[in-house]
């Protein structure tokens, strides 16, 4: 049985979006068909696979053929329309082919970050009712198949695990690349019968929440393509560009702008599966990369690593930077050192890029704001009662528009969208008289480390279980490279002791993802609290401003 998604997509929204022309009513496979018709043997995706230790390249024609073969392989293994297929893969061409395969047969793609471990995946795969999962044999020294094998007894819906670089019955290559499924069945008939609607959910991506459990953001082809259709002209992208994608494809940045946008525009994309600024510079030189998109740490590394100067990065025209407000000093330094346009953006998994700065914007807007809404989207600043505020007044940021998601999987009550379509983003911001916003803080109890949301409630929950800890609270402390790093404040039980090494060991034993780990520990005698007993995290944040790792 397909997963009961509980998506939220009223007919009135469909009609309005179609009438406005903002929803193109196309699938990603349609974009690939166009690229195959116009430039079949041009490079679609290329990159160095660090597991296989070799460069791998696929043309648009090869991607078309292989994604069809993989799709029919999924059908062979019982994947039906509406079934959930998860893949925990790095930035490799197989990631793209798997998503295309899912689209061809009406299955739903669920990308999960390669850094996630048992704790995160035990919830994610079970909640999604994942029927098949694809993992690398090994990535960055970690044994992914062993981890999934250890989880399977608690995942009743999971029927199959396939391993890239694996052997035997679980080998991805044996089952999906070498076996010619197209010779065994009527592929065109299967694809016609399984064709998705552009308003069907094709992607479910987890985003960090404030309750200790991530939420599954659902998107359709129309909500995805509406964003790409609006964004590309604003930044002047065309088929003549070459894209470098170093952000993980399992993050919405990588998924939308490293898979969907290249196929939508028909441009060559260069993948980097392990970030290294020197290697990125070499790729920019060798592949004549003109555009890239990533979070602040990537920009900082590319700007400040002296080895980058050994390569000719002159082809790079635009670095689109999001995930957290960019420090002005970094934007100025990158613009000067790399001789590029640094463009800011603000967006979420729920709606893609919403506000951006444009290449021709005045420098004060580029350096001091997170951009202005792209076509088809709107933003506004409201007070606690939902009333719009005047310019330059801090308040709650709301957004609405063509690329808004269609709900959190199985949690319609958390949609956070009013009857007029305004979505509560959970961020505080200001908007100037020209419509440019600046994110000033977050209402959500998360911190952002290197563009990634860290669900602090989940980490606090684990710390609270330690017998030495009475109270625990995690806040962000400023960091020039990552934006924020986690600082754990704890109070102890009488007579107890607790140190940084003990904290790290405790969290490691809980199988917590590495990037969720606090990077500083402060043992205090008493937590600051409100009259009702709630911990006053703003006071801890003020204290953490003076700290570093």
Give the mean pLDDT. 93
Distance between the termini: 49 Å
> What profile does the largest beta sheet have?
9 strands, mixed
Residue windows where pLDDT falls under 50 for at least 5 positions: none
**In the CATH hierarchy, what is the class of the domain at 27-197?**
Alpha Beta
Please identify the structural class as seen in this structure: alpha/beta
Query: For the largest beta sheet, what order do the strands appear in spatially?
Result: 2-1-10-9-11-12-13-14-15
> What count of helical segments does DSSP give?
17
Rg for CA atoms: 23 Å
Shape: globular
CATH architecture designation of the domain at 27-197: 3-Layer(aba) Sandwich
Helix content: 25-40%
**What is the CATH T-level topology of the domain at 27-197?**
Rossmann fold
Give a quick rundown of the structure.
Among the domains are: about 25-195, Rossmann fold (3-Layer(aba) Sandwich); about 445-545, GMP Synthetase, Chain A, domain 3, CATH 3.30.300.30.
């Amino acid at each position: 049985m397909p997963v009961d998604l509980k998506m939220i997509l009223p007919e009135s929204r469909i009609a309005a979006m179609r009438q406005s022309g903002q929803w193109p009513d196309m699938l990603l496979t349609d974009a690939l068909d166009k690229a195959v018709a116009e430039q079949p043997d041009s490079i679609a995706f290329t990159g160095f696979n660090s597991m296989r230790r070799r460069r791998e390249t696929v043309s648009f024609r090869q991607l078309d053929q292989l994604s069809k073969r993989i799709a029919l392989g999924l059908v062979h293994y019982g994947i039906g329309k509406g079934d959930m297929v998860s893949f925990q893969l790095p930035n490799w061409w197989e990631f793209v082919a798997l998503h295309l395969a899912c689209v061809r047969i009406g299955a739903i793609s669920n990308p999960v970050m390669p850094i996630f471990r048992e704790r995160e995946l035990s919830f994610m795969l079970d909640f999604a009712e994942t029927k098949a999962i694809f993992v690398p044999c090994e990535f960055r020294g970690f044994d992914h198949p062993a981890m999934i094998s250890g989880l399977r007894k608690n995942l009743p819906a999971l029927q199959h695990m396939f391993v890239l670089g694996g052997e035997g019955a679980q080998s991805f290559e044996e089952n999906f690349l070498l076996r010619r499924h197209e010779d065994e069945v009527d592929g065109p008939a299967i694809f016609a019968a399984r064709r998705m609607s552009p308003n069907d959910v094709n992607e479910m991506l987890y985003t960090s929440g404030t309750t200790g459990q991530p939420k599954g953001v659902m998107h359709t082809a129309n909500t995805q393509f509406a964003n790409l259709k609006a964004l590309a002209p604003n930044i002047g992208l065309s088929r003549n560009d070459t894209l470098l994608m170093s952000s993980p494809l399992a993050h919405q940045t990588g998924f939308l702008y490293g898979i969907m946008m290249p196929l939508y525009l028909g441009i060559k994309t260069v993948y980097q599966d392990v970030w290294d600024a020197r290697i990125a510079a070499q790729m920019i030189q060798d592949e004549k990369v003109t555009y890239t998109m990533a979070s602040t740490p990537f920009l900082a590394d590319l700007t400040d690593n002296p080895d980058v100067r050994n390569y000719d990065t002159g082809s790079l025209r635009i670095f689109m930077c999001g995930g957290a407000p960019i420090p002005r000093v970094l934007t100025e330094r990158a613009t000067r050192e790399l001789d590029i346009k640094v463009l800011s953006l603000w967006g979420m998994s729920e709606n893609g890029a919403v506000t951006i700065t444009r290449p021709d914007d005045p420098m004060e807007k580029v350096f001091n704001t997170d951009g202005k809404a792209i076509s088809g989207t709107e933003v506004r600043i409201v007070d606690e009662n939902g009333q719009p505020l005047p310019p330059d007044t801090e308040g709650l940021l709301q957004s609405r528009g063509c690329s808004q998601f269609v709900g959190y999987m199985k949690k319609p009550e958390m949609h956070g969208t009013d009857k007029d379509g305004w979505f509560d983003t959970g961020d505080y911001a200001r908007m100037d008289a020209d419509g440019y916003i600046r994110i000033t803080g977050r209402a959500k109890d998360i911190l952002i480390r290197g563009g990634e949301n860290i669900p602090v409630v989940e980490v606090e929950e684990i710390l609270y279980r330690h017998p030495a800890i009475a109270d625990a609270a995690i806040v962000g402390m400023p960091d020039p490279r990552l934006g924020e790093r986690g600082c754990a404040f704890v109070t102890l039980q009488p007579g107890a002791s607790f140190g940084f090494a003990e904290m790290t060991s405790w969290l490691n034993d809980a199988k917590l993802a590495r990037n969720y780990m606090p990077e500083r520990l402060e043992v205090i005698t008493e937590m600051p609290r409100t009259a009702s007993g709630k911990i006053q995290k703003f006071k801890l944040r003020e204290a953490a401003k003076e700290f570093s790792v």
